[in-house]
Amino acid sequence: MSKRAINFSAGPAVLPLPVLEEAQRDLVNYKGTGMSVMEMSHRSPAYDEIHQTTIATIRTLLSISDDYDVLLMQGGASSQFSLIPMNLMTSGKADYVDTGAWSTKAIKEARRVGSVNVAGSSEADEFNRIPTQDELQLDPTADYVHITTNNTIRGTVWNYVPEVGDVPLVADASSNIMSEPMDVNRFGLIYAGAQKNLGPAGVTVVIIRKDLVAKGDDGIGTMFQYRTHAAKNSLYNTPPCWPIYMVGLVARWVASQGGLEAMQRANREKANLIYDLLDASDFYRGTVVKECRSLMNIPFRLPSEELEKRFVAESAVAGMTNLKGHRSVGGIRASIYNAMPRQGVETLVAFMKEFERTHG
What we know:
Mean pLDDT: 97
Helix content: 25-40%
Distance between the termini: 37 Å
Number of helices: 10
Low-confidence stretches: none
Largest sheet: 7 strands, mixed
CATH class of the largest domain: Alpha Beta
CATH topology of the largest domain: Aspartate Aminotransferase, domain 2
CATH superfamily of the largest domain: Type I PLP-dependent aspartate aminotransferase-like (Major domain)
Number of strands: 14
Shape: globular
Strand order of the largest sheet: 2-10-9-8-5-3-4
């Protein structure tokens, strides 16, 4: 096998090598069935086992109670920006906290359905932090409160679960789900596109409290009702079988590593290797308030854009890819999800030190 890149992409992101190797073995002939998962009927016993095991493993890892349905849906997190207000905004209003590009997009879609109260925002600080609980202006009569738990572009993370009273808390957890323990019972709905910590693009995991499943108006299109997918265990229509199979493999890999507590320890150790360098350097500059730093996405700047371009080019020669910051903010960004090996981060840190020595 040719040498693999050290892939710092924000998504689609690096996958665990053992998962890819198992998928490779199963690609043409899954477990002796004589066909690929991409070829078999989604009603077949072989696929049914994949489907049920994937959901069961997610439930176990996140300690999800029977009060919640676990749905495997299509359309990415961006589709959920519309489906959530369509199903949950029954009185016509909801609270959203704006912490960056993806929450801004969610707000735009929710406004197509009803009234949005921006209950908190860090836009004035260029989204370099998360609003505190005291800053949130919540409406106790809102249908739900929406947050984005980890902001991929800006590199911020909610380091607390906001108190929202009896209002359901809804969270886009696409870029940090399964990276650490999460008290699902604090939320009414959690959704996550797979292509960062769960698997390849094509499936979105939705964890929704059962009382919220039934809230959607019957007038919503059948495919856009959560009750449709809950009633049929996400098999109302043909699901994205291969991505679901891959999510199942990744979930089993996380379990084999010791579960979410072990993931959190490893992720914190990896992130601290970079943050410690940033804090000690006059050459590199972190862009996030320390208390709000993500363990998944680490953006930083160099003294000039010219040096940033050189950093990206030279790091690519050294075998590291996708370190260029998001086009909307520039700079450098290292995304170090669960599957990023510690050795990959150590290679980046060594490169950063040498780059500073030669260009600083």
